[in-house]
Amino acid sequence: MPSHDVLIIGAGLAGQRAALAAAQQGASVAIISKVHPVRSHSVAAAGGINAALNPEDSWESHAFDTVKGSDYLGDQDAIEIMTREAPEEILWLEHSGVTFHRNETGHLGTRAFGGASQARTYYVADITGHAILHVLYEQLMKHHELVDRYEEWFTTDLLIDEGRCVGAVGRDLRDGRLEVFNAKGVILATGGAGQAYEPTTNGLIVTGDGISLAYRVGAKLMDMEMIQYHPTTLAGNGLLITEGARGEGAQLFNARGERFMEKYAPNKLELASRDVVSRAEQTEINEGRGFPDGTVALDITKVPRKRTLEALREIVNIGRDFAGVDITREPIHIRPGMHYIMGGVKTDVEGETTIPGLYAAGEVACVSVHGGNRLGANSLLDTLIFGRRAGEHLAKRAAQMPMPSTAASRTRDTERRLEQILRRPGNGRRIGAIKHELGQTMNQFVAVFRDAEGLAKAHEIVHRLKEEAVDAGIDDKGSVFNQDLIAAIELGYMLDVAECIVVAAQERKESRGAQFRLDFPSRNDDQWLKHIDLSRDGGPEPRVSYSEVTITRWQPEERTY
Ligand SMILES: Cc1cc2nc3c(=O)[nH]c(=O)nc-3n(C[C@H](O)[C@H](O)[C@H](O)COP(=O)(O)OP(=O)(O)OC[C@H]3O[C@@H](n4cnc5c(N)ncnc54)[C@H](O)[C@@H]3O)c2cc1C
Hints:
single chain; five-stranded mixed β-sheet; FAD/NAD(P)-binding domain
């Protein structure tokens, strides 16, 4: 049985950064990923990563922008840590080999991003996540004697012993073998849950596994209602046109040719925060000023062609291949699309969850630096800062702990559960059909605008889908790369996450950040300047409780851009 001081589930930026940090502290580390690490969804991150590295900028300014962007729901102690530590992290990445863009003077160059009062986004063309992920993987390979990699292993369960997390059960996707991973502590770094929506900018592997795994063992989740709709996604397939485009000067127009952001955010225009821009676009579309395909136009021809071809080449390809549009010569039709989950597994600033021995970092976690709305380019930063901190913290703690002796037989419950799925008669609905209905339901009722009636409908549908999922049959009964079986398990994870999102959205009876309630259209600090925590206590529904927002120096103010 593999036994390690630190077990990390997930090998995107948060997981790999945690692994390197834990190994540097001298811990023995294992990292599990259901896909090859460089296929983790971090590879898709395009626009860049924020840090106040320029002498004219300051971490306080970055922190304030983040607090304001979060609509004052972000915890300011965590935001202070993230923004203070950001410059050093960027330099560490640079020294490790990330080829960040340099400007004409040879210094690291920045681009502007939404909601930021300074251009402080560092980038590698529009493949920033790709560039960072590959460099971290090189570092992991360099330290192969300290970090054991379990690539294409799928985590089915967390193991709890006397209230403490002591490892996990994994399935080797290549042959179906189940294994207990024994560990002094576990860090969840499994990313977001975008596939609970359809369409989404997130890849097929982003199914909320870690959020559900933590929830199932009793960990608290926080701010689950806060789902970010990105302002510029392609209609239909949901592919992302990076905010980098607006950062470089692209502008938004409605079907009448009006630059409508002048109305909604006269100062920041297209570079207001994402919740503001998405609501503006959706209002234009709902009030009949959009195009017949339910979109508005993003005009990237405002950016000099040479610059687009140099700094935005990936979206040139996306425009050409997926919309048949040459973005250097004509506007492209876009709409708000599901992109990111601000909520997740509740943690403190060291990554500790409410279950001893269980940590979380990256998009799976809610620390909470993004509160009601994440600023673009703050997520890569979040994954690295809190991934590193979680890795270091758990490694130091593990150095003083004995190794637990988890029984190898603890795979049995999982084995039974998986056999039951394989034995289903197959006369129920198809997994794909249930997932499709889930995604469309979430995208219809739990989107940019919400109300009590729509949320109640979503709640009812998610409950029905949960029941239908129990009978959903699968065709593949084999053990080698059985993606049918994995899809059945992932569907269960997504349904848990969806239920929590809906329940939290019903609970928050105000409008803040990404949660806009048509029936409660104002922010209500008196009653709702608080986090909504959810946990499972054996009942059919998540249990709701509240926790305070940490305010260090920035008192809530009206938010305008
Ligand atoms: C198209 C796109 C562009 C973006 N651009 C930017 C940007 O420019 N700047 C920015 O700051 N943010 C950006 N974001 C957001 C950012 O990329 C993500 O929030 C971040 O990369 C998430 O990293 P992570 O390490 O938490 O998770 P991921 O990179 O998603 O990694 C999750 C890992 O967990 C593993 N895993 C999951 N479930 C299991 C399981 N059951 N068993 C085993 N392993 C499992 C996966 O294999 C993977 O290794 C973008 C997001 C998208 C979708």
